[in-house]
Amino acid sequence: MPCARSRVESVTEPRYEQERIRQALATDPRVGEPELSVDVVAGRVLVTGSVPSQKVREAIDAVVAEMAPGVALDNRVTVASADEPSGEETIA
Amino acid sequence: MIRLAAVGDVHCGTDVREQIRAQFASVPDHADALLLAGDLTRLGLPEEAEVLADALRDLRRIPIAGVLGNHDYQSDRQDEVRAIFGSAGVQMLEGSSVVWEIGSTRVAVAGSKGFGGGFEGTHATAFGEPEMKGFVEHTRSLADRLNTCLEEMDSADLTVLLLHYAPVRETLTGEPREIFPFLGSYVFAELADRHGVDLVLHGHAHRGVERGRTTGGIPVRNVAQAVIQQGYAVYTLDAAGRGSATRAGNAAVSPARSE
Q1: Beta-bridge partner residues of B6
Q2: In Å, how far is A42's CA from the nearest CA of chain B?
Q3: Is residue B97 part of a domain?
Q4: Class of domain A14-79
Q5: Any CB–CB contact under 8 A between B247 and chain A?
């Protein structure tokens, strides 16, 4: 007996789409950053978070382009600062 | 007074050799020792570990200790990664400790990767599927090993607990609550309180905040690089003033570093 099928809205339902992209950014070795956040807002993919290098930041563009061809990307990921400390904290 | 530099979640790749060398070159100017709170590599590859290890080899004049993080396990080559850091003079800790003589102060560092499960009141339980039991038992076994280590550790003037995963909720502020069980476990805070350590350091929570404390009042610092937004943080501790404040649960923390 065939199982009942509920109506599927669309394979591009934003919440599924954003999770699919987030999973790819975590596991694709070009990025490998599970800590990034992905949202789909008004048809645009918004990625936020911090990565260790500009090369990894740029790789986000490539992975998203492959996962969501033709969809606009707003890459707001920053490269973590590695500056010398500006001070210290005393722990009594 | 001793100065400890600390950072986690460096996520070192093969593309950042000069950046990494520059990041750590100044550590001996600011601190007496360096503590690395896991996620030292991005994908857990030996060639990534070599890049960071080369930078750390140049710092041989100060002691360094570290723990691995989940990123360092990603390629199932964690033993190789651990050995590479060991060959660079880094004391890699997992349910183990090291005691350094820094000037006239004996500083003990006990370390573990730590793991998840969540926090008191809602911690995962070893019930149901084997996978669920395995998840919780991994946390418990690491904690048991660390507890034994802390019980047997040589006496010291100052004791630091070094983790990758978070031991308290407070430093996870800013992270989605849904993922708290994957960000840490309270059982390590309980150990810190039981053994009266002076400071707990961890990483892993990139969207968290730097400062928190255990239920018993011990200072906890999230030193994920994305949180501290600098190459490393520096904490000064005074052995003469230790003990009563932290053990009584009202440790005084005087921030000198800009927020």
Answers
A1: B35, B233
A2: 22
A3: yes
A4: alpha beta
A5: no
